[in-house]
Design brief:
globular, 7-stranded mixed β-sheet, 9 helices, 34% helix, alpha/beta, single chain, 279 residues
Length: 279
Amino acid sequence: MSPRIRSYSTVPEFFVQDNPDVDPIVIGAVPPRFGLTDDSKDRWYNLRRKIRRMNEDADNRTSYKVLILGRHGEGFHNVGEAKYGTKAWDDYWSKLNGDGEIIWGPDPKLTTLGEEQARTVNQEWKNELSFGLSVPASRYCSPLTRATRTCLLTFDGLPTSAEHPVVIVENCREEYGEHTCDKRNSRSWISAHLPDFVFEEGFTEEDEIWTANERETHEHAASRAKTTLDMIFDSDDNDFISITAHGGIINGLLIAVGRKRYALTTGGLPPFPMRRIAV
């Protein structure tokens, strides 16, 4: 039986992003080593050994994982918001599909810059392979196009296994409602365009949660993010987890573990070691 109560917290001292008072702008979207403070040649081997030892030494209620949280690259909706400003975007423009020059809904694509941002992440993965970094066996992704495309580009040319495909998870999607950019395509459309991705059990054909007249609250997104954490910690045996998603839901994950919001830029990828205690 799954535990009834699960509490989460971040584990500091491994990455520069662990400091809750750090300025994400100063760190940058993709810092060297993805922010790992250990700069030795065995750095990723060392991290894996430490996480494994922490799990071995923990009691049966406690477990540790490293969640590598990638935000999608710039999408056309980001360009739209920058063009009109956040207030006008939220009040009016986000509820349309475009302005005659830019199309941002439903489910917009990455811009050229967004694709370049994802390739920058990909290059840092390649840079770190010789220092022990490996692609996580468990990779989860939002169903929205800007996230799936980012995920594809992030892991392009890296050693991955067909036995461990990317899993599309509904709860990894952005805060939803009102904004047309956050309405997803159908399961059939996604499957046709991403034949190597698989879907979580119960993923519906149509988008059944997006509505035109109500925006999801930050609090509900955090609750939804915690459901994703519960799923991962309850059912996934891997210690290193990749999630490609969005700024809103990534901050929902951080709020769920008791950390304040992190102003992650598009194309950013901060890893966060996390502890779960189950009662």
